[in-house]
Amino acid sequence: MTTGNDTVLTTAELGERIGLSPQTIRRMANAAQLPGLKSGRDYRFLWTAVKAHLRNPGHATAPESDNDQILSTAELADRLRLSTQTIRRMAHRDQLPALKSGRDFRFSWEAVKERLWHPITLEDTTDQPQGAGLRAQRRARDTDALND
User: Fold this and answer.
1) pLDDT digits (tens, 9 = 90+) for 81-139
2) DSSP character for 102?
3) What is the rounded distance in angstroms from the CA atom of residue 125 to the CA atom of residue 28?
4) Sheet holding 6-9, edge to edge
5) Which end of the chain offers a freer environment for a tag, N or C, measured as fewer CB atoms within 10 Å?
6) Which among 45, 75, 65, 79 is positioned nearest to 110, based on CA atoms?
7) 96 to each of 83, 85, 91, 109, how far by Cα in Å?
8) What is the SS3 assignment for 9?
9) N- to C-terminal Cα separation, the chain
10) What is the rounded CA–CA span in Å between residue 48 and residue 116?
11) Partner residues linked to 72 by β-bridges
């Protein structure tokens, strides 16, 4: 998705641009060698951040901007090419900077871009258990508490 100078790329698109396989891109992102954002099993990369990182690894910083846009969940989902549900989930987990507005969120595009400039960290790659996994953990904890 391109808006002015902001191009957000998927793993495959970034691999194609820099001549690496998607698996290598994923491996580099997991090792914090590329700035980006992890969403479930997939990644999103800001092209300007990747270029700056390739020019000066570990020392790239986001440029200052005066034209900050405030986006709804649907608008940010469209820019990042993710579902609105994924965007909400990431906001709840503090993986994206967001302002809760009633039952929905508002996002600063500049803050999201700033987040895309950072390498993917271990917190981004470890998903908290949900659904049956979370219920099973609670059940095991409760059983252990009863047995003690």
Assistant:
1) 999 999 999 988 888 888 776 778 888 888 888 888 888 776 654 555 555 666 777 77
2) T
3) 13
4) 2-3, 6-9, 42-46, 37-39
5) C
6) 65
7) 14, 13, 5, 10
8) strand
9) 55
10) 10
11) 106
